[in-house]
Write a structure and sequence with these properties.
Elements (H helix, E strand, L loop, with lengths): L7 E8 L3 E8 L8 E9 L7 H7 L5 E2 L3 E9 L9 E4 L9 H4 L7 H5 L10 E4 L7 E3 L5 H4 L2 H14 L7 E4 L3 H8 L5 E3 L3 H9 L3 E3 L7 E6 L4 H9 L1 E9 L13 H5 L3 E4 L5 H13 L4 H4 L2 E3 L4 H10 L5 E4 L2
Parallel strand pairs: 9-10, 9-12, 10-11, 12-13, 13-14, 15-16
Antiparallel strand pairs: 1-2, 1-4, 3-5, 3-7, 3-16, 5-6, 6-8
Helix pairs in contact: 5-10
The protein binds zinc ion (2 copies).
């Protein structure tokens, strides 16, 4: 079946070398057994600011940004997702049948790794394949900006699940970018450390106990959000013996410049957490529906697609917390 929509649309693309451009690209066809979605809102992810990571993605051609999406179904080949409903699909979905899926390790499923939005989430339309519908949340009832938080909040749900975090534990979060702020909001009573005064001020307004880094207090659960050795070493310096340290972002590729002796002697437990699976998006959707997290907690700027290149640089510099592109 061919698409009723033909022609070109606008999409934000990362070009090798680091430039973000708004390019004209073809409107995708509705995938066989999938859906075609018209974008309503799309958030810029802090992961998309990591230069080395994006260069890798753009090595084979310009890379369409965006995976924190909210849109409306405009063509459908799946009765569960009829035309007119609001959806927030994950940009990867597992097969649910292979060995790693049976173990619940969804992000390591071959299908999960090879699925993606067509051409990406920062575009006026995108296709969601039949496989991707395995992790596509209906977000009717949530405002468009809040609905874009399903994926980032699901990454927080996964990290906290893997850490075995319990409310009331003495906990700290390092870094108050969007992801640090989401963690902190889901860890009541935690202390958040940040060097950027603007981010501290924003978080304090959301009721967060945020302050400049100091090592006067020790913690049992620590989440490290920036992917830097410096942030990780700070975590070691505020860890109680036996503490669990969650690494939310990857450290840059290559050998690490510090030794692990302290981590060993202190019995520290290091927990990596990469992306999230369908079990986590379900938890995140429930958190959003409960009102515990809302768009206005973490989204500082609502912008048009044409303003994205500028907002990208501003977010990268730490001048703004998080922009969401509003379509239409
Ligand atoms: Zn993201
Ligand atoms: Zn699988």
């Amino acid at each position: 079946m061919s698409s009723i929509r033909e022609g070109m649309m606008r999409a934000a693309r990362f070009h090798s070398g680091g430039e973000i451009r708004i390019d004209e690209v073809p409107i995708p066809q509705c995938p066989h057994g999938g859906i075609l979605v018209q974008s309503l809102a799309s958030g810029l992810c802090s992961g998309e600011l990591m230069g080395w990571y994006m260069e890798r993605k753009a090595a084979s051609g310009p890379h369409v940004l965006g995976h924190e999406v909210c849109g409306v179904v405009v063509e459908s080949q799946d009765d569960r997702f009829p035309v007119g409903i609001q959806v927030s699909p994950h940009h990867h979905a597992p097969c649910f049948e292979c060995e790693v899926c049976r173990k619940g390790q969804f992000v390591h499923c071959e299908t999960w790794r090879t699925t993606k939005l067509d051409p990406g989430g920062m575009s006026e339309y995108f296709g969601v394949s039949r496989e991707l519908l395995g992790d596509c949340r209906v977000t009717d009832g949530l405002d468009h900006v809040t609905a874009t938080l399903v994926e980032p909040l699901a990454c927080v749900a996964k990290q906290l699940r893997r850490l075995g975090y319990q409310e009331g534990e003495k906990s700290a979060v390092i870094g108050l970018g969007v992801m640090g702020l989401l963690h902190t909001l889901m860890m009541p009573g935690s202390v958040a450390f940040e060097r950027n005064q603007g981010r501290i001020d924003w978080s304090v307004n959301s009721g967060v106990n945020a302050r400049l880094p100091d090592t006067s207090e020790k913690f049992d659960v620590i989440v490290v959000c920036p992917g830097s050795e410096e942030a990780f070493e700070f975590a070691l310096s505020i860890a109680n013996p036996g503490a669990r340290i969650g690494l939310f972002a990857p450290l840059p590729p290559g050998k690490l410049g510090f030794d692990f002796e302290r981590a060993y002697m202190q019995d520290l437990i290091l927990v990596n957490s990469y992306s999230c699976g369908p079990n986590d998006t379900e938890v995140a959707l429930n958190w959003l529906k409960s009102g515990r997290i809302r768009g206005e907690h973490v989204v500082s700027h609502r912008i048009s697609l044409s303003n994205l290149p500028e907002a990208y640089e501003q977010m990268k510099r730490g001048d703004i917390l998080k922009p969401v592109v509003m379509f239409g």
